[in-house]
């Protein structure tokens, strides 16, 4: 028996969120005695990169190298993971909550007749029954969830679990996936991906700007600050609605939900819908000229002041210190 | 063209979340319920597609009687008729079974819903319904156009998007900017009163992962304010106190 982990990768790198899922599975295996952790990766990935998944606690990686799996075709990925699940005789599948992860996990819940819990924030409680704590109401609350099926799927919320890094390299095994044309319903005709940037959903530090930035021409300031911090940039919804910033940078209830160690909000009022996307951040810094801005109530540190004055100074101070 | 839009009935995004009955259910005192914001995008696009192609647009909600105003609002926005599956939505699996059952009966060409609900944020129902019906499912979909039976979509991926072409029938979990939310007008509100709202019974009681109790996160401490002329102080605090640098 093993615990299976579905690994996502982009541009040749295994995603940090997937390594968190492996770390979670590793701790879960130790708790429940479910044997070793086996990861499954689909599409073209570097073998050494796959072996390094062992550092987070996987003993073995099954690699379904079929290049048709390079694109995240939901059904094909679900079919392939179901095959890996049967192959290793797993009872539990662990994966990172993400756009692709959610969609794949949902189909697997039916294929494997497995209870699926998303947004998991802690190891399950297995003393009498099986309950899992998950984040709900966009971070405003938690629910203990009782899973009643023999097979189980747990989708882990990002940054909820400490990453394990001290394991040994995993062995990488070829995994022959059987796929039909029906698994590839829907043809991907083009992909647009921002390259070279730190991706917002996974960033450890995020610097966001709101309508208080007055216009897209002022974003250089946000980018400079992000650069010294090694941060991704984000924005509030009106900013992407007006087109000052691309849609995929929009943070909040209806946008990207982030959970970085540090979130810096500049010229954002802190409307509840924005907070819903950032309330899982470990530390929040707010820069706003209005001392009554609601964001200060959610912040750990705040500066009341004009962003145009404060941000360049902060960037300089960080440059001197870091 | 027959379109089904599945909508959730969720607390307004500004609601303060609290629990009652020994933390076993949501305290609905003072909470205003709305159509799930992502579902609202799905509905808005569905109204446009129905107007473009003709045919019929049905909305469905799995919920008890108190969700009817939410369904009436969807009718006022432009749906032709509504189905309420008369049951408390216990978990995503239970909801997906109901949707799949009635969707099969209705033989829809296109099934749209939000990418996730804003109460349990699972993002699972579209995929489960797809698997139950043996239909392709796509999510999160931010653009969806029809050219005959070909559907041209854009799906959000981390840091970008993917263009996809697929054939009807299919299921999509939607998000912005697929369409602009529609606000019901007076004519819509009047006509919604006479549009059919059919109440049907659930087909099974099976669940797989049900919430048993709820908790609130620990209260947040007060913000530490730093003078705008002392930004160096902030850097020190982030480094030594918060330890995030
Ligand atoms: C259903 C729904 C879903 C939503 N989802 C989201 C979401 O996902 N994400 C999101 O962000 N919003 C969302 N919103 C919108 C949200 O309610 C707010 O309108 C939005 O967050 C406000 O953005 P803002 O703070 O940038 O702009 P504003 O509210 O205009 O605030 C600008 C702030 O900048 C400050 N400011 C101005 N000039 C300066 C300066 N020179 N220096 C420093 N500070 C300055 C002001 O004091 C003010 O606090 C949603 C709304 C609804 C109804």
Automatic annotation (TrEMBL), chain A:
Belongs to the ETF alpha-subunit/FixB family. FAD binds at residues 211, 267-274, 288. GO terms for molecular function: electron transfer activity; flavin adenine dinucleotide binding. Binds 1 FAD per dimer. This is Electron transfer flavoprotein subunit alpha. Its cofactor is FAD. Keywords: Electron transport, FAD, Flavoprotein, Transport. The keyword Transmembrane does not apply. It comes from Algoriphagus sanaruensis. GO terms for biological process: fatty acid beta-oxidation using acyl-CoA dehydrogenase. SMART domains: ETF (SM00893). It holds the Pfam family ETF_alpha. Residues 3-188 form the Electron transfer flavoprotein alpha/beta-subunit N-terminal domain.
From TrEMBL, chain B:
GO terms for cellular component: cytosol. GO terms for molecular function: electron transfer activity. Keywords: Electron transport, Transport. InterPro entries: ETF_a/b_N (IPR014730), ETF_b (IPR012255), ETF_beta_N (IPR033948), Rossmann-like_a/b/a_fold (IPR014729). The keyword Lipid biosynthesis does not apply. It comes from the Bacteria. SUPFAM superfamilies: Adenine nucleotide alpha hydrolases-like. Residues 23-209 form the Electron transfer flavoprotein alpha/beta-subunit N-terminal domain. SMART domains: ETF (SM00893). Belongs to the ETF beta-subunit/FixA family. PANTHER family: ELECTRON TRANSFER FLAVOPROTEIN BETA-SUBUNIT, ELECTRON TRANSFER FLAVOPROTEIN SUBUNIT BETA. This is Electron transfer flavoprotein subunit beta.
